Amino acid sequence: MEHKYEKEYGCLILRMPAELDHHQSEFFKEEADQLLLKYPVRSLIFDFMDTCFMDSSGIGVIIGRCKNVRFSGGYVKAVHLNEQINRIFQLSGLKKIIEVE
Amino acid sequence: MEYLRNEMKMEFLALSANEGFARVAVGAFVAGLNPTVDELADLKTAVSEAVTNCIIHGYEQQEGKIWLSCCIEGRQVEITVADTGKGIKDIEQAREPLFTTKPELERSGMGFAFMEAFMDEVEVVSEPRKGTSVMMRKTIGEG
Predict the structure, then answer these.
(1) Is the Cβ pair A57, B45 closer than 8 Å?
(2) Domain range holding A55?
(3) For every one of its 101 residues, what pLDDT tens digit does chain A have, with 9 covering 90 and above?
């Protein structure tokens, strides 16, 4: 399975999988890290357009990727969150460390 | 609505691919209670957290079996997720938000916190080397 992504003007947009649980996180992590290695971008956008479910496994994955980008002074954002994912972001405190649109 | 009592039990291998199966199965089983979208998401997230814990912590991603049962009594849903894995040494510490024994796997330590946030009640019984059982209750339709 290959994740969709877009790259423009030093920004990488990662299309998140349909269900970001422990199972899907493992595939996503690997692909995201390969992309970040290939394209050392300054900003990273997590696009949840296709995602209908996320649990605590997703939090670790997002924080991990953020650390990599922020280390080099980058900028991270999450977009198109549904109600369930928005609540997960709120409860976990992710909203305090990542801009949500 | 007439008083409803229903029960189901399932047993499956501790594979990450079964995390989605487990939460969808519970979602389908409780459909008769007409849960709201939020209530359904709460139940599915809690099940996903409990099953993931069995796989990552109980069996440390080795072979094992998971038992899940779901009981409906009126408007109350009771879900039990059990494994015969390594057990939890300190349950109180395990339940603390952000506590994790596996930071190297990028675990957030929010599993139990989410179960507690999304369910009305969470009880954990565990014995080292014997296994862990998590029982969660939630009343559907309370608004």
Answers:
(1) no
(2) 5-100
(3) 456 777 777 889 999 999 999 999 999 999 999 998 888 888 999 999 999 999 999 999 999 998 878 777 788 999 999 999 999 999 999 999 899 98
3-62 in chain B: CB under 8 A from chain A: 16-17, 19-20, 23, 37-38, 41, 44-45, 48-49, 52, 55-56
Instruction: Report, as residue numbers or ranges, the catalytic residues of B.
Output: 49, 53, 107
Mutate to test the interface with A, among B59, B106, B107, B118 (most CBs of A within 10 A): B106
Question: CA dist A35 to A66, B52, B68, B137, Å?
Answer: 14, 27, 38, 42
Q: Are A23 and B20 in contact (CB under 8 A)?
A: yes
Q: Give the number of domains in chain B.
A: 1
CATH number at residue A11: 3.30.750.24
Bridge partners (DSSP) listed for residue A6: A13
Contact between chains at A56 and B108 (C-beta distance less than 8 A): yes
Question: Range of B83's domain?
Answer: 5-139
When divided into structural domains, chain A yields a total of 1
Residues β-bridged to residue A53: A19
- CATH number, domain containing residue B64: 3.30.565.10
